[in-house]
Specification:
Length: about 475
């Protein structure tokens, strides 16, 4: 076969160089045709669109074409011609075909017919080859680019925080331990506690739940930073919105108060959504038509809205009124309650019909590092609540007073001796500062319209599920 430099299908479909010979390589989506002429729909992942390869059955021979079935991988040299069919501008008239690998129709699990998302989760090694997951993973890439571009353009520095840590940032005790100890022969001290001095790091360590604490250290030097990395939570919540391993973006800004923090969060989310509409329209249109007919409208709608800002206390009042009018929630509503997703979604979808930023939560239900308000009861927290998702961002202004912070940490059971380095920032040149965390997969749920978080990350980790 003649060697011709490969063109990606995304570029072939845009090309107007009719009459030239091109090479494309990819995976066969379908092959159909008659005794004389065959049509191969070929996809190489560069776009959701396939290029049509037209083959003369007589030239190639039926035997040669037989193994070119759904899932096979081929390389095609052929002439780019204007397509007579609807939809595509260009197609390729095949001159030479090389078969890299066949896919026996008797055993290849992805056949022409649509498969359920549940079934596709069981073949996570092959699902990127479907239209749906190709679209989702391309959008995932573009969202990562949006995030880096947003912060870079605003003078933020991308700061890498550790994955292995000895401190529980959120203080919720939901950490996966990291150890090289022999679990069959654990050394214990006189009181029966495990002796970690012989462990790899000489102390108990875990996978991080958040890069925030280290991010704050960086903000106290570089001014504006963000992290973007994997985080891990061993919370046993089997919901469509929770993963045990998810990616989080955490900006942290010196001198920002809660107001600037809210504005940053709103600008950031809108920028990402606008980026998706600018860069991923083929894929979004596909998902809109396949799964969620309101997706594009919803994305445009959120861009136009000023997010409603109100306090937790006002939020509870609205929810109590709803209960009084007969609305039934599964979980109780009272001042001090942690809001469940049903409450958040009521505020967003039923009451305000708009994204909501809720602030000033009771201190008991939020993390130790949040700035305490003068009322002695609430902290300067902010959660951004989104339609269909509930909480998409959690953040706060940080407590910058050394005594208040260390006392509150003790109260909340966070051992001060483990976070002495974090507390040091409040001892040396402390400053007001704020930040937040965006769950990357929650953003992707919103942008793709998918209903289950397992479908927006290539290889989901959830309770009892770490295959692939
Ligand atoms: O509200 P969270 O727990 O806040 C923090 O971790 C702070 N340290 C952030 C900060 O202020 N720098 O988590 C932040 C976001 C949530 O709003 C949610 O979008 C996402 O992370 N998130 C999860 N996403 C998927 N699966 C889970 N189990 C998640 N837990 C939180
Ligand atoms: Mg939260």
């Amino acid at each position: 076969m003649e060697t011709i430099v490969r063109t990606k299908i995304v570029d072939v479909l845009k090309s107007k160089a009719f009459g030239t010979t091109v090479n494309v390589k990819g995976w066969v989506r379908t092959r159909r045709g008659s005794k004389q002429i065959g049509f191969i729909a070929l996809n190489d992942g560069s776009t959701i669109n396939n290029v049509q390869i037209v083959v003369s059955v007589e030239d190639f021979g039926e035997e040669y074409l037989k193994p070119i079935t759904t899932g096979a991988c081929i390389s095609v040299n052929g002439v780019l011609v204007r397509s007579e069919g609807r939809g595509q501008e260009a197609e390729i008239q095949a001159k030479e075909i090389h078969i890299y690998g066949t896919a026996d129709p008797a055993t290849y699990p992805l056949q022409k017919k649509g498969h359920s998302l549940e079934f596709l989760r069981e073949i996570a090694h092959l699902r990127p080859r479907t239209n749906t997951f190709g679209a989702i993973f391309r959008i995932r890439h573009h969202m990562a680019m949006a995030i880096h571009t947003f912060f870079h353009d605003r003078g933020f520095f991308y700061f890498h925080t550790p994955v292995i840590t000895a401190s529980d940032c959120e203080g919720a005790g939901q950490m996966f331990q990291v150890t090289t100890m022999n679990l069959y022969d654990l050394k214990k001290d006189a009181s029966g506690s495990i002796d970690y001095t012989s462990d790899f790091f000489g102390k108990q360590t875990s996978l991080t739940v958040s890069g925030q604490l280290e991010g704050e250290l960086a903000a106290m030097a570089l001014g504006s930073i963000y992290t973007f990395g994997p985080t891990f939570r061993a919370e046993n919540s089997n919901t469509p919105r929770h993963l045990a391993e998810f990616w989080m973006i955490e900006p942290e800004v010196a001198f920002n108060g809660i107001e600037e923090n809210m504005q940053l969060a709103e600008d950031f989310i809108k920028y990402c959504i606008q980026w998706a509409l600018n860069h991923c329209m083929d894929d979004i249109r596909f998902l809109n038509d396949m799964f969620d007919k309101e997706l594009i409208d919803r994305l445009n709608f959120v861009l136009k809205q000023d997010f409603v800002r109100l306090s937790y206390t006002e939020g509870i009042r609205i929810l109590e009124e709803a209960v009084a009018k007969g609305h039934a929630f599964e979980f109780p509503v009272f001042w001090g309650a942690d809001l469940a997703s049903e409450h958040e979604r009521y505020l967003v979808e039923v009451h305000f019909k708009c994204p909501v930023i809720l602030t000033d939560y009771p201190k008991e239900i939020k993390s130790f590092y949040m700035k305490q308000n003068d009322d002695g009861k609430t902290v300067r927290a902010m959660d951004v609540l989104f339609p269909k998702i509930g909480e998409i961002i959690g953040g706060s202004q940080r407590e910058d007073d050394y005594d208040k912070l260390s006392n509150h940490a003790e109260e909340m059971g966070v051992p001060v001796k483990d976070i002495w380095w974090y507390l040091d920032t409040r001892k040396f040149g402390t400053a007001p500062h704020s930040g937040f965390g965006l769950g990357f997969e929650r953003l992707l749920l919103f942008v793709t319209g998918m209903g289950n978080i397992r479908d927006v990350i290539p290889f989901p980790r959830t309770p009892n599920n770490a295959g692939f």
